[in-house]
Structure to design on (286 residues):
């Protein structure tokens, strides 16, 4: 899943793809570089980011979704708002990637149920301006799993079918640093729920701190792609459904390596792979 940030304040690219034309060109380049799915977002979720008015989010996202769909791309929309999700689905998006798992908008679950669209339910504890204050866990793996189960129960109650749902542990969201690593090391616990799993580690703060030099300063986001590709390989080897990345070529290569590794080990192709993702773009426990 390649990231197309149509925002002026993204933590990772600082607004490089803010215009419709540059965002579309970037999305098409991500496809050339090996992405199978493009995730278009119009509101930054970086730490302390302010909310964007809904009209502004719509004006950023919809033209890009329409143009990428017209080019034959498989598109998801990265939004916490049901009205944005609805209009993006009407424009051709096949998946709604909601970092709040439905908590930010009480209308989201009904929208997902009504449209039948595939839906990423991510673990979340609050908007970007407050999320770091919620980085408190007794056991981060058990706590995240329990909270995602609550989200699943509420989605089911609203009429969302299990085969529509992808789970995401929410790396970096209410997890500023060390809390992320146990979730990556225990992806099998989340996968045991029977749903496809999306991993979004790309360029995040915990990688910047991991790669910090002797002065302790985190490396900037653009210098975290090697570490991101390493996580892509490990996640693919663990059998996750997809990885969400800002730079596609390195992670696409990493996924191919992991697929070959799994095949040689007798693990089959149960995880993500460039050749078969288009047949399994969205949805459903396997």
């Amino acid at each position: 899943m390649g990231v197309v940030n149509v925002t002026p304040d993204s933590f990772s690219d600082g607004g490089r793809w803010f215009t419709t034309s540059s965002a579309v060109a970037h999305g098409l380049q991500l496809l050339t570089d090996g992405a199978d799915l493009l995730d278009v977002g119009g509101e930054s979720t970086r730490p302390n980011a302010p909310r964007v008015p809904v009209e502004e989010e719509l004006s950023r996202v919809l033209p890009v979704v329409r143009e990428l769909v017209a080019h034959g791309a498989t598109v998801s929309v990265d939004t916490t708002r049901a009205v944005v999700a609805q209009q993006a689905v009407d424009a051709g998006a096949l998946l709604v990637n909601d970092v709040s798992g439905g908590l930010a908008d009480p209308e989201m679950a009904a929208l997902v149920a009504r449209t039948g669209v595939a839906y990423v339910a991510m673990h979340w504890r609050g908007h970007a301006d407050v999320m770091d204050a919620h980085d408190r866990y007794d056991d981060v793996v058990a706590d995240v799993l329990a909270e995602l189960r609550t989200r699943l129960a509420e989605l089911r109650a609203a009429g969302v079918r299990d085969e529509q749902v992808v789970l995401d542990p929410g790396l970096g969201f209410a997890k500023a640093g060390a809390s992320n690593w146990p979730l990556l090391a225990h992806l099998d616990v989340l996968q045991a729920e029977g749903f496809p799993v999306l991993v979004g580690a790309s360029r995040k703060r915990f990688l910047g701190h991991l790669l910090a030099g002797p002065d302790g300063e985190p490396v900037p986001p653009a210098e975290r792609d090697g570490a991101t590709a390493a996580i892509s390989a490990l996640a693919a080897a663990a059998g996750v459904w997809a990885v969400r990345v800002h730079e596609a070529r390195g992670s696409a290569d990493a996924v191919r390596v992991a697929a070959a590794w799994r095949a040689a080990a007798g693990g089959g192709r149960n995880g993500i792979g460039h050749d078969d993702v288009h047949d399994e773009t969205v949805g459903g426990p396997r």
